[in-house]
Amino acid sequence: MNDQDSRLKRIRKDLADIKSTENTKEKKQIEKDEDSESMAVGLRAGAELVTSIAAGGLIGYWLDNWLETKPIFLIAMLLLGVITGFVNVWRTTRNIGYQVGYKDIKKNDKENI
Known about the structure:
89% helix, mainly alpha, 0% strand
């Protein structure tokens, strides 16, 4: 009977050790997933900002050359590109997305709380 009790205690201890190891591995994986998700959001926000500014600048430059009005359209479209870029960064970081309507914004706000 004593031999069975010691075996049972050893098995319980081994199970507790295995559960502890698995929990540690799971926590590390969750942290890694959160880090890569944050990295993806940051890269997307940066790419949206850069591309919108570049697109605005290129369109403004092309319009100025086509209409022969040198800095007017370049400045206007660069400003529009900067505004658009910051709005896109805001939408990306708030996880609003590109759905139409106010209902989707409210739903996302409730999920982020």
